Amino acid sequence: MSVSVTYFDTIERNYSEVSITDEGIDTKTFLEATEGLVKLFDLLESKAFVFVKSDMSGNIKKIRERYLINTIENSTLESLVINEKVEKKRKATEGLLWLKRGLEFTAAALRHSKNNKDIELKVSFGNAYEATLKKYHGIFVVPVFTLAMGSVPPRATFFKNLGEDEIKIEEQYEIWLQSLEKIVARLVEFYIQGGHDKGF
C-alpha cells in the first residue's frame, strides 16, 4: 500500500518545528517554514498570486540577508530587529513587518476556511484581506489583491491539491496552522510593544 504524500510532507520545515524560546522565534527555521508557506500559493492555481508570492519571497530575502551577517547575534527574529534598531537600520525590520502582515492574512484566511467548511475559499480569503492587509495597501495595490482573492479556486480543489488522504490532511493542517498562528501572535505583540511598526 502506497503512502499518500501531502503538501505538508513536501515542505522543508513545518511551523511546528520552529523553535520559540524566551529569547524569541528562531530565525533560520522560521525562514525555512515560511518558504514552504509561499509554495502553498501554488496550490491556489491562480497567476494573480504571483505578486503575493514575490512580495513574501522578497521579504524573506531581506531577513535572511540580515541573519547571515551574524547568525549568532541574529539567531532570533526579535534579536535581529533589535540589532538593526541599534544600528539605525530598517531593511530587515520592514521586511519582517510586511511578512508578518502577509502571514496574518494567510493564517486568517486558512483558519476561516477550515472552521467554515460550507463557505467557499474566495470568501474566506476576501474576508481575511479586508480584515488584515487592505488597510496597509494603496490604490494601486488593492486591485491586484482583489483580483487574486476573486480568482481563488473552489475549496474542494484546494484541499484536493493538499493531498488525497483527507484524515491525514486534517491532522497535519491543524498542527501547521496552530503553530503559524502562535508565531504570528508573538510577532504582532513584539512589534506593538517595541513600536517597531512605526512609519510603515
TrEMBL record:
Which keywords fit this entry according to its UniProt record?
Answer: Transport
Q: Which InterPro entries match?
A: GLTP_sf (IPR036497), Glycolipid_transfer_prot_dom (IPR014830)
Glycolipid transfer protein domain ranges (all copies): 25-164
Record-linked Pfam families = GLTP (PF08718)
Q: Which domain of life is it from?
A: Eukaryota
Asked if the Swiss-Prot or TrEMBL record annotates the protein with the keyword Zinc, the reply is no
Task: Cite a GO CC annotation.
Answer: membrane
Q: A GO molecular function for this record? A: ceramide 1-phosphate transfer activity
* PANTHER family found in the cross-reference section: GLYCOLIPID TRANSFER PROTEIN-RELATED, PLECKSTRIN HOMOLOGY DOMAIN-CONTAINING FAMILY A MEMBER 8
Q: What is this protein called?
A: Glycolipid transfer protein domain-containing protein
Question: What organism does this protein naturally occur in?
Answer: Diversispora epigaea
| Lineage summary | Eukaryota, Fungi, Fungi incertae sedis, Mucoromycota, Glomeromycotina
